[in-house]
Design brief:
With 423 residues, the chain is α+β, with helices and mostly antiparallel strands. The protein is built from ten helices and 17 strands. It folds into two domains: 64 residues, no CATH class; 328 residues, Aminopeptidase. Strands 11-6-1-2-3-12-16 form a seven-stranded mixed β-sheet, sandwiched between helices. A two-stranded antiparallel ribbon has the order 4-5. It has a two-stranded antiparallel sheet with strand order 7-10. β2 and β3 form a beta hairpin. The longest helix is centred in the middle third of the chain and has 21 residues. The chain is globular.
């Protein structure tokens, strides 16, 4: 029998099998654990049933084989007994960590000399309880934070790693792994974080390929030899390593700081949200399979995300959220006296309180225009004539206070353009 025939037969057996519950904190299945593979395959096939049978069967087996070892999080027990994100009480908080660890093949410099295990990107995705709004909060890598006690990811039996104070956020991944970054952000914001993942350079490139590319806007030509980004002014559809270069560029945009890079990343993510909703990706099982495979193959995911159906459920939840209710917010900070680090600003408490209360983060749309590290409005967009009326607020929606004016960000329906670093 051919490989595809064997995979089809295995998938057919899985569909006919009694449904079973995958242990929530279980280890990854070892080679030869056929029953666990078949149960996972059955769950994926159920999600992908609207696709052609042969594609769904292949996807099920291929996804299970793509899973990488996971990390158990302190608060992931809150997901117990929940079949999917659509039925979840209390919404979901997902921490995405971007590591600057260099690939072993040397494609981004000597992995021994140029690499460090640093969480240069730390973002919290919060889906509200009723799925009416979504927040993505970016935390500056140089922000000084306290770090709680964390389990030692190398030797868990040796006891917890000591707590720390006054350390840069991007040092936490190397100190205590993904779980420690999660505990640090959870302590900082007061928000339980149930799922998380780490992605490295090649993974970012693969994920951008999986979604079919993202359109970005540049107000000026950007040349950054550090990240490898070289793009003319205007609009470009980027993917793969070009998308990675755009997301990494710091010296080439804004004021050359990580805060300027966050503004560009937010413009990229807003465009990504528009793309995923407009082309039907989030309701297309075959496209969702491609994204899920890229995530499982290229990310270290916490244990609760090891089930591919969870990834699909999260994606489908995002499909119907109004773009104007998807907010990309930079965690508010202020510079230290020597301007080498940043500290949480007083207004950070307003962000924390809204997240804790499951309230939308309402941004002053002019705040980013007044920021030295922000992006700029799309020069090609027609000027607003001021005649459009704001839609009436829903009668059942509670009033939400806007965030202080120093909290910057954009919403998913906003087009912003990266501006070149004049220095």
């Amino acid at each position: 029998m051919s490989d595809s025939g064997e995979q089809q037969a295995a998938a057919d057996q899985a569909v006919a099998a009694e449904p079973a519950t995958v242990p929530r904190h279980g280890r990854l299945p070892k080679h030869g654990a056929a029953s666990t593979y078949l149960k996972l395959a059955a769950s994926v096939i159920a999600v992908l049933a609207v696709a052609a049978t042969s594609i769904a069967a292949y996807a099920a087996v291929d996804l299970v084989q793509s899973i990488k070892p996971g990390t158990e999080l302190e608060d992931e027990h809150l997901l117990a007994g929940v079949p999917d994100i659509g039925a979840m009480e209390g919404g979901l908080s997902f921490l995405l960590v971007g590591s600057d660890k260099r690939p072993a093949d040397g494609s981004f410099g000597d992995p021994e000399e140029d690499s460090a295990v640093l969480n240069d990107v730390t973002m919290l995705l919060h889906i509200s309880q009723d799925h009416s709004h979504v927040e993505v909060v970016s935390f500056p890598r140089d922000m000084i934070v306290p770090v709680p006690e964390c389990p030692d990811p190398v030797d868990p039996e040796s006891g917890p790693l000591s707590s720390m104070s006054g350390v840069p956020l991007n040092s936490v991944l190397g100190h205590g792994g993904l779980g420690c970054v999660v505990s640090t952000i959870s302590q900082l914001t007061g928000v339980p974080i149930t799922v998380a993942g780490v992605v490295e350079f090649n993974g970012v490139a693969a994920l951008s390929e999986a979604v079919g590319g993202v359109e970005v806007c540049l107000a000026d030509r950007v040349d950054d030899d550090y990240s490898g980004l070289h793009l003319d002014a205007g609009t470009h559809s980027i993917s793969g390593y070009e998308a990675l270069a755009f997301l990494r560029t710091r010296h080439g945009v804004g004021d050359g700081s990580d805060l300027g890079r966050i503004a560009s990343q937010q413009a990229f993510l807003a465009s990504l949200a528009r793309t995923l909703q407009s082309d039907g990706t989030l309701s297309d099982p075959v496209k969702l399979y491609s994204i899920a495979k890229a995530m499982l193959s290229n990310m270290e995911l916490s244990n609760a995300l090891q089930n591919p159906t969870t990834l699909v459920s999260i994606a489908r939840t995002l499909a119907d959220v109004d773009l104007s209710k998807i907010a990309f917010v930079q965690y508010p900070t202020e510079y230290s006296d020597d301007r080498t680090r940043v500290l949480p600003a007083e207004s950070a408490e307003a962000v924390n309180a809204a997240l804790q209360a499951d309230q939308p983060l309402v941004i002053d749309p002019t705040a980013i225009d007044n920021s030295e590290f922000g992006t700029v409005a799309d020069p090609a967009a027609p000027p607003a004539d001021g005649s459009a009326e704001a839609p009436p607020a829903e009668a059942s929606a509670p009033p939400t206070a806007p965030l202080p004016g120093d909290v910057t960000g954009i919403t998913g329906d906003t087009v912003r353009c990266a501006k070149a670093n004049e220095g």
